Amino acid sequence: MSPRGSEFTVDASSGDRVVLQRPAALRELNGLRAALREWLSDHAIAGELADEQLVVLSELVTNAVEGSPPSASISVCWAVERDDLCISVEDAGLGFAYEAAEPVGSSALRGRGLTIVEALTDRVSVTVQAQRTTVAAWTQLRRSGK
Amino acid sequence: MSFAARAEREGPILRVSLSGELDAHTTVVVADAVGRALDQAGLSSVIFDAGELSFMDSAGISELLRIQRLLADLGASIRVENAGPTVRRVLEITGLLEILGVQ
Predict the structure, then answer these.
(1) Which residue range is the domain that position B14 belongs to?
(2) Could you tell me if residue B25 is inside a domain?
(3) SS3 for A21-38, per residue?
(4) A84-90 and A123-129 strand pairing
(5) What domains can you pick out in chain A, each with its CATH number?
(6) Which residues of A touch B57 (CB under 8 A)?
(7) pLDDT at A136 over 80
(8) B24 vs A27: CB contact, 8 Å cut-off?
(9) Are A15 and A55 in contact (CB under 8 A)?
(10) Contact B55/B86 with Cβ under 8 angstroms?
(11) CATH of the domain at B62
(12) Is residue B65 a part of any domain in this protein?
């Protein structure tokens, strides 16, 4: 997977923010996780916290792909904001209504993604603008006892 | 890292070794590896070895649950062995350690 230069944008104004445009396709998951893993490592974020953030990214991207038309693209961003790591993903918008994560029965086959994101992060926000849904999740990097 | 599922039948037991990253794109590999064995008679349990599984998200969980259901219909059981801390964590969050027979 070799991203073209035009698809890879680093916002020079912060130096700590990565914004990527990717096709709305599940095959992108692996490469996006690899890119985040490398970036986390460069920012001295490792171990369980890093592994958990890869799960967060995967859940958000999967949801965004499923909420986008096949030929569309999604926007993926991660950044350090003060003491928080923020991961956000914007879908291409099918205009579906976001449903907050509700307890899923043990028998349900799907619908666990956001439950996992909410458990692994400190704050989740959902913004809908022009039918495009952005889900962002923040995790405190300096946790006492972590 | 790519993903692979290798299935070996040992009498009534199907042992499936998972390696790499299991997500919504790679669950089909697990479905293929297990699907063929489910057509054969006399299966009592499927044991997933997660020792080399470096990543799993909710799509992987959904696939394991789907297989657990198919097995339950056959009167067979599922077990997940050697799960690493993060794989175990997502199973814990979703309350599925017991249902998926995580050792």
Answers:
(1) 4-93
(2) yes
(3) EEECCCCHHHHHHHHHHH
(4) unpaired
(5) 5-140 (3.30.565.10)
(6) 55, 58-59, 62, 113, 116
(7) yes
(8) no
(9) no
(10) yes
(11) 3.30.750.24
(12) yes
Work out the mean pLDDT of chain A and round it to a whole number: 84
Contact B20, B52 (CB under 8 A): yes
Q: Return d(Cα A92, Cα A74) in angstroms, integer.
A: 6
Return the residue of B nearest to A47 by Cα: B86
Read off the tokens for A52: 């958990």
pLDDT confidence of residue A16? 83
Residue B44 lies in a domain: yes
Residue B57 within a domain: yes
Provide the ipTM. Answer: 0.94
> Which of B21, B24, B90 minimises the CB distance to A62?
B24
Per-residue pLDDT band for B36 (boundaries 50, 70, 90) equals confident
Q: What is the pTM of this model?
A: 0.88
Core vs surface per residue A113-138: b (16+ CB within 10 A) or e: bbbbbbbbbeebeeeeeeebbbbbbb
Pick from A27, A40, A116 the residue to mutate for testing the B interface (most B CBs within 10 Å).
Answer: A116
User: The tokens of A22 are what?
Assistant: 């990717």
Pair of tokens at residue B40: 């054969």
Considering its fold, how many domains does chain B have in total?
1
Residue A13's pLDDT band, with cuts at 50, 70 and 90, is very low
